[in-house]
Amino acid sequence: MTADAAPQPGPEPLVDQLRAHAGFCTASGAPLYAELMTGMAQDLEAGGPTAEVFAGREHPPVGDVLQLRMLGGLHRVVLTRRAPLLATYYRSVGGEAAPDGAWSVAREVVAAHVDELREALAVPPQTNEPGRAAALAVGLQAAALVHGRTDVRLLEVGASAGLNLNVDRFRVTAADGDPAHVWGPADSPVDLTGSVLGGWPPPVEGLRVVERRGCDLAPVDACSAEGRLRLTSFVWPDHAERHRRLAGALALAAEHPVVVDRADAVAWLRDRLREPAADGVLTVVWHSVFVQYLDDATRSALWSVVDDASVRMPVAHLSLEAPRAPYMGSPTLMLDGAVLGGAPAHGVPLTIAS
Fold it and tell me: What angle is formed at CA 341 by the lines to CA 338 and CA 342, rounded to 5 degrees?
């Protein structure tokens, strides 16, 4: 799920949303999007091409984040090499120009692609952050220690493209360089070196993911060109490290594809947990930055499914979520209700709880 915006109730004037989000971008190390959103707000008020793109949707719910939908569409134009001058501002394609003046160039591209960008408003932002795998790796080791089992069946709800289901193929190490705290192959294309701060639980010898599967209401096919483009387009251009992690995870997904079913989380998880795991296998139910998208009844139903299954088989509930309603803010890593640590929305660094 996306980490750059979360659903919030109520419509507001889009021009106000653009200006508020521009400030958030400035604070989040995304100066290009701050510049573009400021320009979009001015252009919307002036009746320019931005107004054509958003025509009829000038007061959307905040949670629709139409600005990110439009910018995702604009990013796809850049990524497919149809806006070479604008690309000079996009770090995601090697651009190095300062963001000042980017909007005047972007406005021309918007004017040339109004219909395409209007269609992009139907595509909700969706990212699949490989950085959250640092929390998953630490959590899997903790679960193996608590439950005394080293073979894991990993089930992820809200899995998006399922990139983090390949967690055992990622490289995760502690910030202090302790060689005892190392996870995954040294040559992994997803390098989360130094991503764990604090007292990492003791390493578990022989931990294996023997089965992996996920679900999402709108899964993205990481093995398709369209899916890769979509995931890449919603990572902000200034966030070079996120782009590197995503590229590595997509390379792994091409080599080791995983199953992500298009399904409702509660029904899917209930069905999976009715399937007994093999002898000696621990089932780990995992989700990250997901529950904020659920209503209270669905959240309660999901917890009940996990609790009911834990009576029948060894089940660990591992999550990286904001700890309380409305489930905004920095996520907390929890195992069976116990706090293991905390992380920013994109996952790194993970700080182990003292």
Answer: 125
Look up tokens 């302790």; give the residue: 178
| 3-class secondary structure per residue, 133-199 | HHHHHHHHHHHHHHHCCCEEEEEEECCCCCHHHHHHHCEEEECCCCCCCEECCCCCCCEEEEEEECC
Q: What are the boundaries of each domain within the chain?
A: 14-120, 130-352
The tokens describing 339, both together, are 């706090």
* Model pLDDT, residue 3: 44
Task: Decide yes or no: CATH 3.40.50 for domain 130-352.
Answer: yes
- CB 337 within 8 Å of CB 329: no
Bridge pairing between strands 332-335 and 281-288: unpaired
Give CA torsion, residues 58, 61, 64, 70, to 10 deg: 10
119-157 pLDDT tens trace: 999 999 999 999 999 999 999 999 999 999 999 999 999
Q: Is 210 helix (H, G, I), strand (E, B) or coil?
A: strand
pTM: 0.94
Spatial distance between the Cα atoms of 28 and 340, rounded to a whole number of angstroms: 25
3-state secondary structure string across 65-77: CHHHHHHHHHHHH
Mean pLDDT, residues 153-164 taken together: 98
Q: How far is CA 217 from CA 160, 272, 321, 342, in A?
A: 8, 16, 19, 27
What confidence tens digit (pLDDT) does each residue in 196-242 have? 999 888 789 999 999 999 999 999 999 999 999 999 999 999 999 99
